């Protein structure tokens, strides 16, 4: 109800403004109305989100009538992201596109923002309860996980043990990728066994897994930070084991692409964060203009290998360290 | 180190009061200047009920940790474990409430959850206090150890996977609930500050706390059971962490395993900014509550300025060093000048 009354007040104020604008022609009419959109990144220290930011900034520039602010906390921590959401809400943003750090912990602050009339858009990750969210933009993570499974199975010669990370339910994207991977292996690659790595992201977790499972010939990794740690752990193995291990990872961070080029990892399934950022801005703007938007917008992925990484059509999907 | 300082006689106590006043003033002054600046910069945005209230709710957990830490630091000790104990108590509390119906659990489950969270904190405090007093291991080492143990135990018990079995009534009526129009987390934090402030400044136990921090040997010779005081102090700090864990569950509905890593330091920062001496002997719980909000207000305003909130860390660091510097200068003046 409150939501309606504030919207009504706003529209009255707006129509008054329009009337005034009509009375004093030139100036007021040429200054266009700007849509105030905030993009809150998962973290501000990850190339994936830097690319998302670049895509959003580029879209805002192209559209011309969007005032975009990009925010976030330096670490993946729901208790750090919550105050950022609250500050953005208080600062008068009209729409918030956000990669939530936890599908449930961020529910309350975003619901409060939504109750104030702010349009909420999920980007990359999503809330467990998205009922009030205008649109969710994310990779089709199960499909990407399945794609990674097919790629890895081929590299492993359809046999051996594949090491995969444990499922962490709080982070929906990650859980879906792993589930997509597992489903594909169980359905279509029955000779491949699955072993789970410990929850720790340290190199020691990989070393322990290598020691426990001598027949590991494949690894599936989900986050680019982790893949770099894994590449380091593989380098420490004796050469005869090292050369037998094929690695498929997600996310084309520059350092990971370097590892691909030097054959430390064999394939990357890159997401399209820049496209997500652009879609977030476009969708938020559409919602603010009162147009219908799709409740769920899946974005695709692209497989990068040593063979195609030299071509511009594929190289453009390498994640960025800065927007220039 | 602490033994060089005698228990302050009357004139020195005046000086002491001045020290306290100047540090607290620097902190409160900084907070006021920053808030005035943001109010002027963002009319109708910064100084709104919504913004101030959410800001206070966001930092209410840190205040709970800060109250306990004020006691600890007034007694010239450290506690680095409260952030990890907070998360560990979240884990045990969620496990208990999960067994009692999870999201559908009633107020009975919530009460058990509160008891488990507080019990976890008290147990951690007992272990800390006992090791510091009986085994005579320095507090900074003991609590660094229990930090690691609590963090590890939280990961072991959950397999590194967040738990979400928090009763809906707890989320709705405690995390998002209101009492007399005020959000419950603010009320809980305010009560903790009021009680903590009363105990530290008005009771005999509070005097004992200051005395052991000022000169432990003198306090012992004066007949104070300093061991019992120390253990009680860590029980208070542990209870604060347990309560903060319970409130975190009520707000986030998640064990937030990866979170709260900065909480311990932010709370310590608030304690020192608030005028509690790093060297023990003097402390103010209300000062802590003020100090805790400096980083919060800064990052809030910086987000409104459309700047990433990184500058907060730099400004807070400078104010911190300035506050401790004033503490030292006044202290030196006192011992040299007489």
TrEMBL record, chain B:
Membrane disposition: Multi-pass membrane protein
Tagged with keyword Kinase: no
GO molecular function, one term: transmembrane transporter activity
Localisation: Cell membrane
PANTHER family registered for this protein in UniProt: ABC TRANSPORTER PERMEASE PROTEIN YPHD-RELATED (PTHR32196:SF21), ABC TRANSPORTER PERMEASE PROTEIN YPHD-RELATED-RELATED (PTHR32196)
InterPro entries the UniProt entry points to: ABC_transp_permease
Keyword Cell inner membrane part of the UniProt annotation: yes
Transmembrane intervals: 20-43, 55-74, 80-100, 107-133, 139-158, 179-199, 231-253, 265-298, 310-329
Protein name: Monosaccharide-transporting ATPase
CDD domains: TM_PBP1_transp_AraH_like
Organism: Deinococcus arenae
One cellular component term from this protein's GO annotations in UniProt: plasma membrane
Keywords assigned by UniProt, alphabetized: Cell inner membrane, Cell membrane, Membrane, Transmembrane, Transmembrane helix, Transport
